[in-house]
């Protein structure tokens, strides 16, 4: 079997926009394939709760544990679908769905997030916001107060915390890291993905990181 070669630029490197697009398509595919079995599990849980064969099951701690885990998994997949998936061109995300994603991101970590961006928004901008929140969570795993604000086309994600993981080398992936920079781990992959996605959208990232917080703007 033969495979078509990946398009290359004049200097022999794979084009950055092609890489970003392939990564996004992979994210969309994985999330799409995971949503269906989670839905089937949810339907099975509902059927068990409605069944009269086990009357004590609905209020049992075991069922509560399953429901909480299922809800958390669905929320995480929804976040990953936006953050890692395709931006969808001109698709827009309703305000309620955006707010739900932000709320789920806050629950998953230890961040208190204030969203100051009314109205619907382009899926591409929301993708950058969610990736930015993941970067903030990595930098401030002990908790932070985060504000998401929008002014026209410009976005600002500002976080304040008592302490941060000060790693400028990792944050350099939001722009153009120097040759030989340490590769991020799997748990830090959102840093280079944010840089790639922003470059593809022609939205340069501006960032700052201190001992007391961080800012990401685009």
From TrEMBL:
Question: Mind telling me which Gene3D superfamilies this protein's record contains?
Answer: 1.10.287.130, Histidine kinase-like ATPase, C-terminal domain
Q: Where is the Histidine phosphotransferase ChpT C-terminal domain?
A: 96-212
Concerning Pfam families, the annotation shows:
HPTransfase (PF10090)
Q: Does the keyword Transferase feature in the UniProt annotation?
A: yes
**What domain of life?**
Bacteria
Q: Which UniProt keywords apply?
A: Transferase
Q: Which InterPro entries match?
A: ChpT_C, HATPase_C_sf
Q: Which one of the record's GO molecular function terms can you name?
A: transferase activity
- Name this protein carries in UniProt: Histidine phosphotransferase
> What is the protein's species of origin?
Paracoccus aurantiacus
């Amino acid at each position: 079997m033969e495979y078509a070669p990946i398009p290359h630029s004049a200097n022999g490197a794979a084009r950055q926009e092609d890489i970003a697009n392939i990564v996004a398509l992979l994210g969309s595919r994985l999330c799409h394939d995971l949503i269906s079995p989670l839905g089937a599990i949810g339907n099975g849980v509902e059927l068990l709760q409605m069944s009269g064969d086990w009357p004590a099951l609905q209020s049992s701690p075991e069922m509560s544990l399953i429901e909480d885990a299922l809800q958390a998994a669905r929320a995480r997949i929804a976040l990953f679908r936006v953050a890692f998936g395709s931006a969808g061109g001109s698709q827009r995300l309703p305000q309620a769905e955006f707010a739900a994603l932000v709320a789920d991101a806050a629950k998953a970590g230890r961040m208190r997030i204030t969203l100051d961006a009314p109205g619907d928004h382009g899926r591409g901008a929301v993708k950058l916001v969610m990736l930015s929140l993941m970067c903030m969570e990595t930098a401030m795993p002990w908790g932070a107060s985060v504000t998401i604000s929008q002014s026209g086309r410009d976005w600002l994600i500002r976080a304040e915390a008592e302490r941060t993981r000060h790693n400028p080398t990792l944050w350099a992936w939001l722009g153009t890291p120097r040759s030989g920079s340490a590769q991020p781990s799997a748990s830090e992959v959102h840093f280079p993905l944010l840089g790639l996605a922003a470059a593809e959208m022609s939205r340069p990232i501006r960032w700052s990181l201190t001992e007391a917080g961080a800012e990401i703007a685009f």
